[in-house]
Amino acid sequence: MAVNIVHTHMKTSHLPKKKNSLPEEGKTKKSDNPSFYEKVFEIARQVPKGKVTTYGAIAEAAGIKLSARMVGWALRYSGRVKPPVPAHRIVNRVGLLSAKHQFPTPTLMQEMLEQEGILIKDDKILNFKDVLWLPAIAQTKTTK
DNA sequence: TTGTTGACCGAGT
DNA sequence: AACTCGGCCAACA
Fold it and tell me: Which of these, A41, A76, A113, A117, is most buried using a 10 Å CB contact count?
């Protein structure tokens, strides 16, 4: 049994309805709680130079582990938010530069990473294990 | 309102 | 190793 009743009362007004109304820009809106967009940006900004992290890792750190897709969705806006977000340091779980087409030029993401000492071949990070940086996960035992 | 689409992930084939 | 599938959830037609 245990039928799940889905409540649809949750407001979505704190999320951007149009491309021009981002949470960062319109943070004076009615939403008092930080949207997950801000969480994503905040975590992404912590990635050190010369390191990368993954969508899933950010999702987990933001408390939405199963929704890594939304991290990528949120990062679409990362180019226009106020403290800058090093979006080029975020790749998918296998080290592929899946976001490279979202940058001003198709080669910019790779170039920026290479400037930080990261080796890339065929849109894939070669030394992925070495440069992978994982954000601190709130209240989660990482002893594995 | 329903259906489709993502800068994804993990498990299964 | 490559591919498919189901799940997650916001935005959009």
Answer: A41
